[in-house]
Amino acid sequence: MHAPSGIGVIDKSVMIMDALEAGPATLAQLVECTGLARPTVHRLASALVHHRFLSRDVRGRYVIGSRLAELAAAAGDDQLVSAAGPILLKLRDVTGESTQIFRRQGDARVCVASAERPIGLRDSIPVGTQLSMKAGSAAQVLLAWEDHERLVEGLRRARFTPTVLAGVRRRGWGESLGEREPGVASVSAPVRGPSGRVIAAVSISGPIERLSRQPGRKFAGVVVAAAHQLTEMVRANPDADHGLKDLDH
C-alpha cells in the first residue's frame, strides 16, 4: 500500500485500483479490501469506469481498465518508435508499399511512425495523422482483442463486423479493401507489450490494384513477421540489432 499523499480522493481512488491488482472484484470485495465506506467506493469506482481507469467484466465485477494500458504504452512511445523505424523501412522495401505503426488514443488511431513508398502511387499517412477506429485493417487489429464492453462500443457504426474481428483474432492479422478510403487496401498485424496486450498495429497500405483484392494472402506473412519482431524488441531488448533478417522468408 502506498503512503498517503494527503489528497483524499486520489488516495482512495489509488486504493481501489491497488485492490484490483490481484484480479477482478465485486463492489463488496472492494469495500472489504479498502476499508472505505460502500457509497464512497461506489462513487469513486463509477467515476474511474467513466474515465476508463476501471472497467466491468461480463459478470459485473470491477477490473483494471484500458486507459492505464494506453498511458503505459504512451510512456513507451520512444522505445516503440525507435524500434519501429528500421522495421518499417525493411517492410516497405520487401513489399514495395507504404508502411505505418498505429497506436490507439481514445476513439482514434494515430500514426506514430511511417515509411512511405518513394515513387509512384502511394497511400501517404504522415506521422501524427489521426484516423478513425471504425474502418481499416489497423482499426480492426487494435479493436479485435479489446474487452467485451469496448468491443461492443467499437463495433457501433463500424465498417467491419464481429465476424471480421473474429477472423482477425483467429488468423492474427487483418485486411481491408476500401474501408477507410475508396481504392485503398491494407494489411495489419498486432504488436504486443510485455503483458501480451495489443499496444500497436503494423500496417502496409496502397492501391487495391497493386495489393490485389486479397491483400492478406499476398502480404500477411511479412506483415506478421514484422509485428512479431517489433513485439520481441519492445518486450525484451529495445537496443538489439533492428535488422529483419527473417522477413524475406
Automatic annotation (TrEMBL):
Keywords: DNA-binding, Transcription, Transcription regulation. The keyword Transcription applies. One of its GO terms (biological process) is negative regulation of DNA-templated transcription. Residues 7-66 form the HTH iclR-type domain. It comes from the Bacteria. PROSITE patterns: HTH_ICLR, ICLR_ED. Signal peptide: none annotated. Residues 67-236 form the IclR-ED domain. InterPro entries: GAF-like_dom_sf, HTH_MetabolicPath_Reg, Tscrpt_reg_IclR_C, Tscrpt_reg_IclR_N, WH-like_DNA-bd_sf, WH_DNA-bd_sf. The keyword Transcription regulation applies. This is IclR family transcriptional regulator. It comes from Nesterenkonia natronophila.
